[in-house]
Design goal:
It is built from 14 helices and 16 strands. With 606 residues, it is an alpha+beta fold. It is an enzyme of class 2 (transferase).
Length: 606
Amino acid sequence: MATPPSDAEVPCAAALPPGRLGRRLFLYFAATLLALAVGVAMATIVPLLGRLTRSEQAGLAHVAETKALAIGEWYRRAEDLARQITSRTQIRDVLEDVYAGRVSREHFAAYAGPRLADAMKRSADVVGITRLSRDGEPVVSCGEAIPENAWRIPPEGSGKVLVSAPVMLSGKLCIVVGAPVTGRDGSRVATDLVAVDTAQLAGKILQPPGEDPAARLALALREKDAVRTFLVEPKPLPQALAPAMDKGLGQALAGRAGILAATDTVIAYTPVADTGWGLALSADSRLLYAPVRTELAAMLASTAGVYALCLLGFGVLLRPLTGRILLEARELSAMVADRTRRLTGELAARKEAEKALQEARDGLERRVAERTRRLAEANAELLALHERLEGEVEERKALSRELINLLEGVRLDISRDLHDHTGQLLTTLRLTLNAAARDLPGDAEACRDQLVAAGQKVDQVQTEIKALARGLRPDTLDYFGLVPSLAALIDEQQAASELAFHFFHNEIPADFDRDKALALYRIAQEALSNTIRHAKAANVHLSLVRREDRITLSVEDDGAGFDPAARPATSLGLTLMRERMVQLGGTLLVESAPGEGTHIVAEVAL
């Protein structure tokens, strides 16, 4: 046991009054704790303020980029609306008749006007359509009149559409999309001007998010080296905000995206891809950074509360202990010795606990390693299953390809048998009947007439067998190519029906890939057969065009139409069409509805 200290060992403690010593200890503790709190605050709150501020700015920039993507999607949808209107081949055919002098312009206007009006009704965003002739003169229009300064006519030979700067049409802010109408020979026969209202853009897409009454979202474009703001939501744009918004819009029109921080406003700007427009979104900095200030205030209040509680606790504990520190110093030494012994025991117990904890950690690591091994095995099984499924998909494609090749081989064999074997037998029979008719005596006129009639029947059967053989495997496809084969197919179908066929093609190479040419021929053959048998149509439009490195086959009729989702499962025609395109890496689109005709489009790479 430690010996008690003598009176000479504590002269300072005995010389100070208890109250004064307590005050000094309290002041020292308060100063040390305050310095520690200030250091912690400077090391954590200041960097946190910067990160939170940048996070709020990044959120505003993300909102601006999301709005820009939505505007770009609306812009591309406006271009697609114009392309859909130009794809109406019946109006184009009548316009070509006008150029050929077969139809008057008045007749064309009476014919095309209702159809363009119907096309305009299909989209609430389209407010006006004007069709210009190849000379740039308006031939028909419906809806809002489009001023000449908003006309955008694509150059000759270009398949792209052009979009004007926003203009006011009868109080509506619109863009005018100019789309070329391509004729049979690939040249431009007309230009469609489609006026698209920006009301949906302003009403749904451009509304600023959140509840900031000072927030504004603006769209602008560059005109004659100046920034022209043509759409602001909500209106109006405050005069104090206009210079900063113009600066942000100028940066966006230069192709840059970023944040512009002013005194009371933060502006996020970004370009709208593929439109030539720029977007700027403003927000009140006080509302934008309000969550940052709230969080920082809560942290400061928590720090101050902890500081006050520490001081209060220290003061409460210090008052009764000050006297005992001075009066019981000897007992304190004994207590320190006893506490040392107890701490030594606790340290030994802690070491034992740490050893047990280490053993538990080792066991946990072993279990984790075992679980990792099992997960790796499961992952390997999943990879094997994935590879097996991919193999099954490839086997299905190969089986489908073999079935199509087998079908074409069977058709070729039947065609050859009909032409070589059956055709020769019928020719021999015809010659035999003619010889028998010549060898009859003169008084057997009735028998001769029957033989002649039988020979005519043999000729008819021979003609039908030849037509059947051509349908199974057209010779023109092997010797002359796809376009002559389709023309021959249309001639045969027109001779056997009362339909009016319209065939259009341009720039189709003669040495087109044999498998792709055969697939397109079979799709056209099946589509025309379905039209004759089921559609009850009056007109059929078939086109085969080349667009850059793609070949597109289109078959469109004005018949009864059908519901593609309700077709019976036993119908194999559309299934074979689609499977042929899948094997060649192409696409097949079927558009139909009861009473609205049928439109089939097949497209493959050149």
